[in-house]
Structures are given as C-alpha cells and as structure tokens.
Specification:
The chain is built from eight helices and seven strands; from the N terminus they run αααβαβαβαβαβαββ. By secondary structure, the protein is an alpha/beta fold. It has a seven-stranded mixed sheet, sandwiched between helices. α7 links the parallel β4 and β5. Bound molecules: S-adenosylmethionine. Pfam families: Methyltransf_3 (PF01596).
Length: 219
C-alpha cells in the first residue's frame, strides 16, 4: 500500500500546492547535513500553514524543530510582528534549522531555543499565551508537553499533536514502546480534559500510516 499512498500524496501535492524552491532546498540542506527525514510531508506542511491562517495565529510554539521544515511552513503565515518559538534539543538540528530559517527569510520572526524542551518550557516565565502549539518532538514526553501547552495556552488556542497513530500501534494497550505509551497517555489526557474539544485524524501518504490530534482550548 505504501506505493499507492505515496503516489496519491504526490498527485495531490502536484495539483494543489505550488512548487516551492525554498522548501525543496530546506529538505536538501537537511539531507546533506545527515538529518533524519522525519519532517512533516509537503501536504502536512500546507495543512499546518492553513491552520495558522485559520486561527490567525500571531504567536506559535513548536516543540521539535529538526531542520525547520515545518517551522518555515508556519512562520511564513505569521503577520508582521508575529513570532514563532521552536524548541530543539539536538545542537546540529538547531544549527541547520537556523541556517534554513535565514535562507527562507523568516529568521526575524523565529527563535530556535536549543536544549531539552521540558527545560525550556519550565523557564519561559511570564509571557503572552500562544495561539497555536505544534507538538512534534520525543513522544514519551507528550503528556508533559500537553501539560505545558495548557499552561501557555488561552481559550481559542489550537494544539496539534503529530504522529499519534504510529501504524496503528496506538490501539495496543500492552505496548512496551515508550513512544506509543506516550501518545496513548497524551490522547487519553486530551480526551479527559474538559477544557479541550478534540479529535484525531489518521493519515496515509509519503510518510506512511500515522495521524495527528487537533485540540481546541474551550472558552
Ligand atoms: C519529528 S522531528 C521534528 C520535525 C519537524 N517538526 C518538521 O516537521 O520539520 C522531532 C525533533 O524533536 C527533537 N527532540 C527530541 N527530543 C527532544 C527534546 N526532549 N527536546 C527538544 N527537542 C527534542 C529531535 O531532535 C528532532 O529534531
């Protein structure tokens, strides 16, 4: 099925999303630097961009930068004066991301905070709430990231959690995989929190079978 999923993804992207030399170059830079190809797909990047546009986000938090591919998709949608804070533990990933963000012309609106995300989140202090939060780092920490996301959110904030289906393993209650355990707890916490209205969507495509959660902080 993977071949078919990829072919459909490629067809849809070709029809719907204009070719973008900068984003293509960002992926090439990541590959040259030896970064793993675990960025969002082009279709998912455009979806993130549309979410930013739909909620008119001025302040975005991203947990998990890699080379900044998803960061560029979202940062481009920010209005003048908007800001995106992205958290990355790996110094090489952070360095490549900074280069890519400069190259893409969005560096003035983006801060790459290097270090373990939990540490950065603990030290953010008093700051205006984020309008959109994209959780896409180490999955065992997803429950912790959700707690922090709620801390830095406001009514109307959109919280997106990536890679929550994991080829269907999410349904396995006896899994020993810490990432699956993390996303299961994250989903259960999301569903049990009366402050959130949430759903999740399974996806197939060039990145295989996975999915994302979408949670709205209620008024
Ligand atoms: C799936 S990748 C992010 C992909 C990126 N959002 C994109 O679509 O282009 C996950 C990233 O999270 C980073 N990461 C893993 N554990 C982390 C932690 N504890 N704190 C911050 N970043 C972490 C990894 O180094 C990796 O770069």
């Amino acid at each position: 099925m993977q071949q078919k999923w990829s072919a459909v993804d490629e067809y849809l992207v070709k029809q719907l999303i204009p070719e973008d030399e900068i984003l293509t170059q960002v992926l090439a830079n990541n590959q040259r630097a030896g970064l793993p190809a675990i960025d969002v797909s082009p279709a998912q990047g455009q979806l993130l961009a549309l979410f930013v546009r739909m909620v008119r986000a001025k302040r975005i938090l991203e947990i998990g930068t890699l080379g900044g591919y998803s960061t560029v998709w979202m940062a481009r949608e920010l209005p003048t004066g908007g800001e995106l804070l992205t958290l990355e533990a790996d110094p090489l990933h952070a360095a490549i991301a900074r280069e890519n963000l400069q190259f893409a012309g969005v560096a003035h609106q983006v801060t790459v905070a290097e270090g373990p995300a939990l540490q950065t989140l603990e030290n953010l202090g008093d700051r205006p709430p984020f309008d959109l939060i994209f959780i896409d780092a180490d999955k065992p920490n997803n429950p912790n990231y959700l707690k922090w996301a709620m801390h830095y959110a406001r009514p109307g904030t959109l919280i997106i959690g990536d890679n929550v289906v994991r080829e269907g393993e999410v349904t396995n209650p006896t899994t020993t995989d810490a990432s699956v355990q993390g996303v299961r707890k994250f989903i259960e916490m999301t569903g049990a929190d009366p402050r959130l209205t949430a759903t999740a969507v399974q996806t197939v495509g060039v990145k295989g079978w996975d999915g994302f959660t979408l949670a709205w902080v209620n008024a």
